[in-house]
Design brief:
single chain; 416 residues; I/LWEQ domain
Length: 416
C-alpha cells in the first residue's frame, strides 16, 4: 500500500511537516537517530528496574521483587511500544515532533526516579506521574495526526480519547483513590491500556513498515542485552576486587557470557518482519515482546544474585537464587520461540527447542549446576537451530537472508 500524501509537505509558517502516514513500502526505512536516542533513555529506566529487582532478590524478598518488577516494567515497555508504533506510521522528524519526543524522554526519567519506591515500597506515585507525562505527550501526537489526515482521523481521535481517559484513571488511582490503590486496580488499568489499540484499530488500521518495526524491536532487544552485559561485568569486577575466590567468579562470568551470547543468537536467528503482516499478528508480536524485554532485563539481576550467593550474602534458598537466572532465560527463549522460531521450524526441531528451554528453566532445582547447565542447554539450542538451517540450506539462521528478502507492505496494520 502506498500513501499518496508525502510526509515532506510542510506548513511553511511553522516549519512543520504535515503528519501524514509514512509509506509502509518505503525503501531503506531504518531507525532514526531520534529513535535510537529515545531507546537509550528508556534503557536508563530498564537499568533502574533491574537494579531494584536485584536488591530485593538478594534480601530474600523474591515474590515482592518479581511482582513489583513485572508491574513497573509494564509502564516502561508500554510507553516504548506506543512511541515505536506511532513513529513507524507518522514520524515527521520536524522540530515539534522532536520536542514532543523529548517530553516523553523527560517522563521516562521521572518514571525511572520512581522505580525504586514503587518496587521496594509499593509507592508508585512518582512512577505514575512520569508515566502519565509520557502518555499525554503521546496524546498530543495523535491529535496532530488527526488534524493532518482525514482517512485516519477517527482512529487517531480514538487513540487520543482512549489514552486520555486511562491516564485520568491512573492519576485518580494514586491521588483520590490512593487508599484503594492495589495490584488489582493496576492490572485493570493495564487491561484498559492494552485495549486502546484494539478498539482504535478495529475499523481503519494505520499503516506500518514491517522491516522498520522488526528492526526497532531487534535493536531494543540488543540494547537491553548489552546493558545486561555491562551490569553483569560490573558486578563480577566488584566481586573480584572484594574476594579471593577468583575461580568460581570467573566461571560464573564465563557462563553468564555464554548465556547472553546464546540469547542474542536465538533472538536474531530469524528475520521477524514477515510475522507482522496483519493486525492480529502485529498485536501478538507487539504484546508478546513484553516477555522478551522483561526477561532480558531481569537476567543480569540473576547474575548479581548468583555472585551474592557464591559469597554467602544472599538471603535466598539455593534453588531460588538459581531460578533468578534460569527462569528469565527460559521465559526469554520461549517467547522468542513463540513469536519467531515456531513457524519456521519442523515439529521435531521445535519440540527439541522447547524441551531444552524447559530443562534450562527447571535446572534451578540443581542449584550448584544450574548456571552451567543453563549455558550448555542454550548453546545446544543454538546448535539445534544452526543444524536445522543447514539442513534447509539457509546458512546462518535468518541473518544473512534478511537483507535479500522482499519488503512486505501490510494490508492492515498496527499496535500503538
Amino acid at each position: 500500500m502506498t500513501i499518496p500524501n508525502s510526509p515532506t509537505r510542510r506548513w511553511p509558517a511553522a516549519g512543520l511537516r504535515r503528519m501524514v502516514p509514512r509509506d509502509p513500502a518505503e525503501a531503506h526505512r531504518a531507525a532514526s537517530p531520534l529513535e535510537l536516542f529515545f531507546d537509550l533513555v528508556f534503557v536508563v529506566a530498564v537499568s533502574f528496574a533491574a537494579t531494584d529487582l536485584h536488591h530485593l532478590e538478594v534480601r530474600g524478598h523474591l515474590a515482592d521483587a518479581v511482582a513489583g518488577y513485572v508491574l513497573v516494567f509494564f509502564a516502561i515497555w508500554w510507553a516504548w511500544v506506543n512511541f515505536t508504533w506511532f513513529a513507524t506510521s507518522f514520524d515527521t522528524d520536524d522540530w515539534l515532533y522532536r520536542v514532543t519526543t523529548f517530553v516523553q524522554m523527560a517522563g521516562v526519567l521521572v518514571l525511572a526516579a520512581g522505580i525504586g519506591p514503587a518496587i521496594e515500597h509499593g509507592d508508585d506515585f512518582v512512577a505514575t506521574m512520569g508515566y502519565v507525562v509520557m502518555r499525554l505527550a503521546m496524546v498530543s501526537q495523535w491529535l496532530r495526526a488527526a488534524t493532518a489526515h482525514t482517512r485516519y482521523r477517527r482512529t487517531a481521535l480514538e487513540y487520543a480519547v482512549g489514552i486520555t481517559v486511562v491516564q485520568v484513571l491512573w492519576v485518580l488511582r494514586v491521588t483520590v483513590l490512593a487508599d484503594l490503590a492495589s495490584t488489582l486496580t493496576f492490572l485493570l488499568l493495564v487491561v484498559a491500556e492494552l485495549a486502546v489499540p484494539v478498539v482504535a484499530e478495529r475499523t481503519d488500521t494505520t499503516p506500518w513498515h514491517t522491516r522498520h518495526i522488526a528492526e526497532r524491536y531487534s535493536l531494543f532487544t540488543l540494547i537491553v542485552l548489552g546493558e545486561g552485559l555491562v551490569a553483569s561485568a560490573n558486578a563480577v569486577i566488584g566481586a573480584l576486587a572484594a574476594s579471593e575466590r577468583i575461580g568460581p567468579l570467573l566461571a560464573l562470568a564465563g557462563a553468564g557470557l555464554v548465556i547472553v551470547a546464546a540469547m542474542w543468537w536465538i533472538s536474531f536467528a530469524r528475520s521477524q518482519h514477515d510475522r507482522i503482516t496483519s493486525l492480529p499478528r502485529a498485536l501478538a508480536f507487539g504484546y508478546g515482546h513484553y516477555v522478551v524485554f522483561a526477561a532480558a532485563a531481569a537476567m543480569p539481576a540473576g547474575i548479581e544474585v548468583a555472585i551474592a550467593a557464591s559469597e554467602g550474602t544472599a538471603r535466598l534458598a539455593p534453588a531460588a537464587a538459581a531460578a533468578t537466572i534460569s527462569v528469565p532465560v527460559a521465559a526469554f527463549v520461549l517467547a522468542v520461540w513463540a513469536l519467531a522460531l515456531r513457524p519456521t521450524l519442523g515439529r521435531p526441531t521445535s519440540a527439541l527447542v522447547v524441551v531444552l528451554t524447559l530443562a534450562a528453566g527447571f535446572s534451578a532445582f540443581l542449584p550448584q549446576l544450574s548456571l552451567v547447565l543453563t549455558a550448555i542447554l542454550l548453546a545446544a539450542i543454538v546448535v539445534t537451530l544452526e543444524v536445522a538451517d543447514r539442513n534447509r540450506g539457509r546458512g546462518t539462521s535468518g541473518v544473512r537472508s534478511r537483507g535479500r528478502a522482499r519488503a512486505v507492505a501490510p494490508a492492515s496494520s498496527r499496535v500503538s
